[in-house]
Amino acid sequence: MKRRNLAAVALAALTGLCAPALHAQTKWDLAAAYPATNFHTENLAQFISDVDKGSGGKLKITLHANAALFKAPEIKRAVQGAQAQLGEILLANFQNEWQIFGVDGLPFLADSYDASMKLYKAQKPFLEKKLAEQGMVLLYAVAWPPQGIYTKKPVNNAADLKGIKWRAYSPATARIAELVGAQPVTVQAAEFSQALATGVVESTMTSGATGVDSKLYEHLKYYYDTQAWLPKNALIMNKKAFDALDKPVQEAVLKAAADAETRGWAASRRVNEDTLAKLKAEGMQVVPPSSQLKADMAKVGDTMLKEWLDKAGPDGKALIDAYRK
């Protein structure tokens, strides 16, 4: 009898030890390149909270903001190699790998939120197919506010940009610098403020949101609101990690992603208004571009679209045709 009781106790203890494993949480890492206060990062934080609730706590995601886990150019490869299960990337950063990634960085192709969404819908099937081939899933994408030109001195035309040290963050922004005769210097968001303080760069083309994040008003005087393009951040996921989740948790992730995309685009519009007001309040001159500057930059856009189509091949033509329908 005693022997039976001991066996029962041992079995109960073993079952107790195994119980947590049966209900174990899955833990993921999400690598992001922008500060915790950036609207994209805040959207990621809400996405994580929604996944936690939607999965009943079965999937816990840790957010690593401000390039704390991987630098911006490293994030895509990290997700592909399952070093992080999730990562947020600026699609245009990867144009040299595959031209379609950079279509939303072409100046004046899509220069409003409505046009940017139309371009995203045309681009999305191509993105999903390419990422699937690379073992990843596109969860959602959200546009940055429209891009403008920041400078220390007044700029009336493209010639005024000649020789200026221009912060580039993507192949497209580097090419713009080359076409206007500026000196492109690659600087990621996390190092931007220091680069300005040390004189490594003295101008850039980016959004009002980045202008506020990096306190560009402390170093630069002018923001020309050219509304040149609206590049997108995309949240990507390792496919094997996703496939390993049970169906209800997968559905929770996809639902949270769909909500994050809708929320993110609305937030981007609000941030655009708020950040331009903030730049003005901090003493920066926020002005429309002169007609000559706009015409000069439109020529840059035409040149870059032609170059892009030559490199992008049939997929690029199909994408632009779908966008222009």
UniProtKB/TrEMBL annotation:
<keyword id="KW-0732">Signal</keyword>
<feature type="signal peptide">
    <location>
        <begin position="1"/>
        <end position="24"/>
    </location>
</feature>
<dbReference type="InterPro" id="IPR018389">
    <property type="entry name" value="DctP_fam"/>
</dbReference>
<dbReference type="Pfam" id="PF03480">
    <property type="entry name" value="DctP"/>
</dbReference>
<dbReference type="InterPro" id="IPR038404">
    <property type="entry name" value="TRAP_DctP_sf"/>
</dbReference>
<dbReference type="GO" id="GO:0055085">
    <property type="term" value="P:transmembrane transport"/>
</dbReference>
<protein>
    <submittedName>
        <fullName>TRAP-type C4-dicarboxylate transport system substrate-binding protein</fullName>
    </submittedName>
</protein>
